[in-house]
Design goal:
single chain, about 140 residues, mainly beta, 2 domains, five-stranded mixed barrel, four-stranded antiparallel sheet, NA-bd_OB-fold
C-alpha cells in the first residue's frame, strides 16, 4: 500500500485502479475524503490493477448516453482484500456470468469524445473495463 496521491488524475495517468482506505482497512472505489463506514480519513491506497475479482451481478444497458457503446455491459465486481472486500461498478470487455473471475484492463478510449455530452481537451477518456480470466491462467 502507498500513501494516497493528492490528485486522482494520477491514477489514470499511471493506469492504476486504486482502492482508497482508512486506518481501519475499510476500502472503497472511488475514494472519499472520509471513510463511509467509520468516518476516518482515507489516507491509504491499494492497487487493484493486477488483482482479479468476482462478478457479483451484471446488466446490459441498451439505451446509453451519447458516445457510449451500445449495448454496454456493466458489472459489479468484488475484490478480496486481506481483511475485507471492496466492490466496484465497471464496464466489461465481453459478456460475463455471475461468479466469473475477471481482471481490470486499461482502455484508452471508453467513449467517443466527439459524441459525448462533456467535451474538452482536458477530459480524460480512458479508464478500466473488466475482462474474463480464462480458466487456464
Amino acid at each position: 500500500m502507498t500513501e494516497r496521491a493528492s490528485s486522482t488524475d494520477r491514477d489514470v495517468e499511471h493506469h492504476q485502479l486504486l482502492a482508497h482506505g482508512c486506518q481501519n482497512d475499510h476500502f472503497t472505489v472511488p475514494g472519499h475524503p472520509r471513510c463511509p463506514a467509520c468516518g476516518e480519513p482515507q489516507e491509504k491506497t491499494l492497487d487493484l490493477t493486477k488483482k482479479t475479482g468476482i462478478v457479483k451481478t451484471w446488466t446490459r444497458v441498451a439505451a446509453t448516453p451519447p458516445g457510449v457503446r451500445e449495448p454496454n455491459t456493466l458489472a459489479i465486481v468484488e475484490f478480496a482484500l486481506e481483511v475485507d472486500t471492496v466492490s466496484m461498478l465497471g464496464g466489461t470487455i465481453e459478456q460475463v456470468s455471475l461468479g466469473e473471475q475477471v481482471r481490470p484492463v486499461y482502455i484508452d478510449t471508453l467513449r467517443d469524445a466527439d459524441e459525448s455530452v462533456r467535451q474538452g481537451a482536458n477530459q480524460s477518456w480512458g479508464g478500466f473495463r473488466f475482462e474474463p480470466v480464462s480458466p487456464d491462467e
